[in-house]
What does this fold into?
Amino acid sequence: SEVHDIFTTLRSQLTVDQEVKESLQRLLEPLEESVRELYTSLQAIHNPGKQSIHSICEKGDVMLLTSREKLGALICAVPIGRYYKFNFMWSFCMQRLVTCISLIHFLRNGTLITQVQVSNNLLIESDKFNLTLEDYLVGVLILASELSRLTVNSVIQGDYQRPYDIFKFVSELNAGFKLLHFKNDHLRKKYDSLKYDIRRIEEVVYDLTLRGLIPETEETKIEETQ
Amino acid sequence: SEVHDIFTTLRSQLTVDQEVKESLQRLLEPLEESVRELYTSLQAIHNPGKQSIHSICEKGDVMLLTSREKLGALICAVPIGRYYKFNFMWSFCMQRLVTCISLIHFLRNGTLITQVQVSNNLLIESDKFNLTLEDYLVGVLILASELSRLTVNSVIQGDYQRPYDIFKFVSELNAGFKLLHFKNDHLRKKYDSLKYDIRRIEEVVYDLTLRGLIPETEETKIEETQ
Amino acid sequence: SEVHDIFTTLRSQLTVDQEVKESLQRLLEPLEESVRELYTSLQAIHNPGKQSIHSICEKGDVMLLTSREKLGALICAVPIGRYYKFNFMWSFCMQRLVTCISLIHFLRNGTLITQVQVSNNLLIESDKFNLTLEDYLVGVLILASELSRLTVNSVIQGDYQRPYDIFKFVSELNAGFKLLHFKNDHLRKKYDSLKYDIRRIEEVVYDLTLRGLIPETEETKIEETQ
Amino acid sequence: SEVHDIFTTLRSQLTVDQEVKESLQRLLEPLEESVRELYTSLQAIHNPGKQSIHSICEKGDVMLLTSREKLGALICAVPIGRYYKFNFMWSFCMQRLVTCISLIHFLRNGTLITQVQVSNNLLIESDKFNLTLEDYLVGVLILASELSRLTVNSVIQGDYQRPYDIFKFVSELNAGFKLLHFKNDHLRKKYDSLKYDIRRIEEVVYDLTLRGLIPETEETKIEETQ
Amino acid sequence: SEVHDIFTTLRSQLTVDQEVKESLQRLLEPLEESVRELYTSLQAIHNPGKQSIHSICEKGDVMLLTSREKLGALICAVPIGRYYKFNFMWSFCMQRLVTCISLIHFLRNGTLITQVQVSNNLLIESDKFNLTLEDYLVGVLILASELSRLTVNSVIQGDYQRPYDIFKFVSELNAGFKLLHFKNDHLRKKYDSLKYDIRRIEEVVYDLTLRGLIPETEETKIEETQ
Amino acid sequence: SEVHDIFTTLRSQLTVDQEVKESLQRLLEPLEESVRELYTSLQAIHNPGKQSIHSICEKGDVMLLTSREKLGALICAVPIGRYYKFNFMWSFCMQRLVTCISLIHFLRNGTLITQVQVSNNLLIESDKFNLTLEDYLVGVLILASELSRLTVNSVIQGDYQRPYDIFKFVSELNAGFKLLHFKNDHLRKKYDSLKYDIRRIEEVVYDLTLRGLIPETEETKIEETQ
Amino acid sequence: NISKSVSDSIDMNSSLMESFRTFRADLDAHQDKYERLVKISRDITIISKRIIFNLHRCVGSTDREAIFEECVTKFSSISPLISSIQQETMDLDPYLYARAYTNGYQELVEALTFYHFLRYSSLVSYQHLSPFFKGTLLIIDYVLGVLDLTGEMMRACISSITAGDMDTPLQVLSFLSQMNLHLQQFRPFSHKELSNKLRTLSTSMLKVEKACYSLHLRGCSVALIAFEDDEERDLTDMY
Amino acid sequence: NISKSVSDSIDMNSSLMESFRTFRADLDAHQDKYERLVKISRDITIISKRIIFNLHRCVGSTDREAIFEECVTKFSSISPLISSIQQETMDLDPYLYARAYTNGYQELVEALTFYHFLRYSSLVSYQHLSPFFKGTLLIIDYVLGVLDLTGEMMRACISSITAGDMDTPLQVLSFLSQMNLHLQQFRPFSHKELSNKLRTLSTSMLKVEKACYSLHLRGCSVALIAFEDDEERDLTDMY
Ligand SMILES: [Mn+2]
Ligand SMILES: [Mn+2]
It folds into this structure.
């Protein structure tokens, strides 16, 4: 019947859609695996033992090679013009990548890596695949959370300079985020956590200041931040 | 500072995004209003009073003019290549439109309107805006629900032919849907309701058959359906 | 460290477990597909058109060949002694199979197929894989539901004998289920639906009796049931 | 009738199943009672008053005798080959036992007890009954939670060494868990709590370090952990 | 300590409560079993086969002996003055008993058994245990539901008198219930369903009247039933 | 028809309400924007850099001009006598305004601004619009929270006087709040957090006292602040 | 001890403490008034519910007037309660305490409109009800009460068929379908209670349709009887 | 019309109708009593809540006795309410209406035990409270009230630190940990409200532990000062 014909056509359409989704899923899994390993290896900064922060970053660079490759395979498979139909699938993964890359960047340079730099680092061609603004921002907020924890662990390891550096950096981040105006959404909720992170960092800096554990050249440095 | 510059750039990006979304929202509201009115006016089929089904459909045609116009304005505002970023916003609206258009079509022709015909009816240019397969299917499932209710109301109005027509049509729809294979998602849940709709229609046809309220040429017609 | 060694061991254990589960999942999918097709094709009894019930059953037999084969592959992969660790995965599938097989059996013989007969039909070797009692019973309850719907559709198709046969059969089923005593669980909930199914069948038989639409030899037949 | 006979057979089968389950339930209750008492008595570590940790552990040993005996009775009653049909019943109980046994072990030796050691401690013969990997891991995660609370309470009691020991131990645990890769399930959710536990422990160690409340030989000890 | 004493006392009191509850639960189970059997055996009225309604009632009487005995044991165990602490446990059971006893009574006498008569029948001593008004009323509403089904089955069995008797009886019941004011509770919900039961009965009576299947001495008989 | 007239009237009335609400919403958004900017600019007290507290307050005054103007527009649009129908919409906004105004007031005068003073500051005409007591109190509680954070940051900036002033001020606030009886609502929850805020402040003061970092003329200064 | 000395130095008679004492008085007065209104509302609810049950006795009854008179008496017993609410809320923003007595008012609207529907076969408007409430009735409470009314209409429809009343069902169907069409257009107003009750209205609507359907089919059995042609009789007197 | 004739033939004075009239009276009386009890319970709740807020003023106050006396007066104002409950439920199974006033009673137990704890530093037992309730207090309401008390103890603990009271926190810690150990053993009793409150107790416990932890560390800062050795001073007078 006529109805039968209509549905036969629809069936083939539906099958194509589902196959695209499944193939993307299959390509996503190794990417997730590699990002998880990268993230885990960077966690060593909180309890570095005999490793230096420097060597942890270098190890991260090596692991990024794999992630970049797996991401490349995924990007190839995304159908043109339908990026936003599927991007919820790898959103979590992209956020984590932003966190890892911006963490390494901060530990080396003490600055914030830009959205474009992250895209370049990941070799993302922007016409069919892109790092969304939301994922970049969420990734940066998770970075702030990691750094908040790092202040505590730095003090445990006897490093009194890093908390001040982080204080300066996250204060700037906080000021930056205040320029943005989020509607009530996922991002806003994440952003609320920044307030707690910054208070925690302030408390650590307070403890150090009160005890005079200010690194020698600190006076000048604080001056500059402001 | 450097961070400040990065965020100033991000702010303008974010603002653009939010403005697009808000302008779409503003264009969506009159569309929703017109679709709600269209839908409500078609509801009169269940209790037509002195109106004929024919005149209800004609009234529907007139109201569709407005919906088509409002939809046109919305389509113009959707940024190219980002259709899937926003389509969740008007998904509900498109489903309702499919239901209304396919209901009018069925009442006039007794057949199922195709996805392409609905698109044409709505003057949708497929390169930047399209009627998704999911929305088309959900709209058709809601049509089946409306028709199921209509069998009962037809009998109240003394029309014994329409239930048989609906029985034939929804049986074919049911067979059609069985050709598709849904993963566990929103569509599958909607599809489950079709089972109840069809049982309800069967009961009405049963009641009519039992009481010999078969329309004259029915014997032949049922024959043909199968 | 010591803890590290412990977790390395645990990791390999966990990996093995997850691989077993994934391989079972991969084998389950084609089984589910084939059972869905079998079930859909049997649905034709409600609206057979020019097909005879006889030919629908024969078509079912053919499709069962595939299901049996897919199930065989799954059975091979279940690790010995851990059947109950995974059986929740294919429970739904087994119930559907019971419904299909017992439906074909009823349509041909008018009797209930036993749990053992279903197992044999499916070539299940009982030492490592079995058809659980719960799945058999749930499958039979779904059969009653299908038959309840079939009474209505039989009358539509002008067959007044089948409703009486089903009435007799489901009454016996109901008496049988009353011998069992379910604790408050999934099965009990399904069993509650039997009450509605039987009432529906009674209503149809009432309608036929009231109108004297009793098949000729019915008097005797009803006598026998009791 | 034939159907009657089938159900009579099923009834006896069902009755056997239910009796097994009920007898297991009856044997489980005293086990649960004894585990609850054991767990409560170990809770005294958080506010030991005049008791020493040593004596709390010894009291735990005595109470374990009862648990072991009750568990033995349960194990005897589990039907061979159907362990996984029932193990959801005592899963919670086994997790608690793992927590208690591993807590005593840690307080005495400062190390992690292995899954095999716990099984041996509980006299579990692995052919028909076993401590599942999931239960062992959940039990260990609850241990981490208890230890996290213990760091705070140790400080209240003026014991500044224990927090460092716990810090070292839970850091290793955390590294261990990172070797595992959980799918989205119950375990993953529990595992998320470990992040909070470890942050809490870090904060305590931070407070102590900052105030110079480092136990004498601590410098060396921290060195070794890493 | 004082706190210790207070809580030890409390715990022993609550434990006593718990034990009372458990012992009541143990006594309740055989009662439930016997009531279920009684109820199931009375279900035979819907499909009596060669049994007479008379003999079904007599069989019911015999089964009631067991229920009465089991209830007696339960009553003995209920602590004086705390009936309402536990009565939610046997509420369902009492409702079913009311249904069974009032069904037998109606089948024999065509009248409604009173709350006091049910209590006497069950040998309930009102000082420590009683049949609550709610349970009596719910039981009677379930009776109406059973009778509604019985009208349909009476016609199937060729008994055209019983539907009239039931209609007369349930109409009077309905008039009684209309006098009551309910809260939005379980009772109200059950009462709402009475409307549907009576409508079904009335439809059957209407069908019979329409077909002239009124028993000859109808006017007189209705008179007699009252 | 009558029903038609009734509902047409109702609908137009409700539509008017809806339109009022929407127009209020439109006027609220710029107010919220300006309050957010005001609040953000005052946040600079925590990390003032080269700005003086004095200049931050002055900047706040300027920004308040905008808020006052936006609020004025909103007030004009609120229908007389229906303030409490809509006030949930700007409740959050009013609380923030109270916090900002009372913060500036405290920083300048060291005292609590009264509810009437805030109303005057905001040019609220009390007949159709008012600052509710709840919003005033919540705003003041958020002030306490800000001040708690400010004590920590004051120390970081080497200002040891402010913590004492804040402690004195919040202690008095706390004594005031202790006089009130709350329901279990939002206000109560906020009030509970006051305990933690004041404890943190007290800890800072304690830390300073312990280290002899009491500003010389402390006794006198506290006197003066009041 | 600095904490001690600070807390001791607090002047319990400062203007700050004075204003907090005023706050306490205000908060307490507000809470007390709210409690009093809740109690009145509960009283109104219980009387209204009983009136509704009484009104259902009208269906199929020969003595409707007596029941109506009884209801009128009960309605007048509610009047003083409304006066109390009016006095408590006089000169206040009507929305300030509306939440305290919305339940009672909705139930009362339901009772009043149900009474009116059964007695005069029409829907009483907000304007007509308002005086009974001495001007304290909010439109939203009227709408919510009318939505509850549809549930009672549905119940009355089902009962009336049994009671041999063939007009009420179709009257209810016509009323409900009009109300449904109008009320469903209220949907865009985001109001949780309203949305819930609109969903219930849809269900009631379907129940009434089903009832009218079988009522219609029963009439059509005439055709069937003719078709069966073994039981021909004059059925005109059956109606 | 058979329906009509059957419904007309119903004897409204039959014994069946008579017994339903009795049922109506019984159901109405039950409902009315329940409503009266709910109202009394709400009154008790509001007074008790206010007493609890007053009691928190004791923390760090120099005039505890005055506050206690005020509370005693308020408690005696509750006494007549309890008498009303006692009269309403006299000679009845105490569990029949318990649900109507459980909220009020729990709040009152919370207020009474909190008063007792602050004044006499001890927990008042069920046996000691019972007379105040004229024998109408159920054990479960006592337990639930005491569980609420732990929340107030936690609040008092946090405040007392700020107020420079160094003893109360440790006293609360000791009380709470004893109560926690005992109460957590109640878990197996399946009682939803009880389980919820036990979960809250765990949270309160952790908060008190955290508070005592920082109180302890502040004492230990002495060590830090020594360690820093540039600020050696006699700190004994700081306590
Ligand atoms: Mn109602
Ligand atoms: Mn409380």
Summary: Residues 15-56 of chain H form the longest helix (42 residues). Confidence is low (pLDDT under 50) at residues 221-239 of chain H.
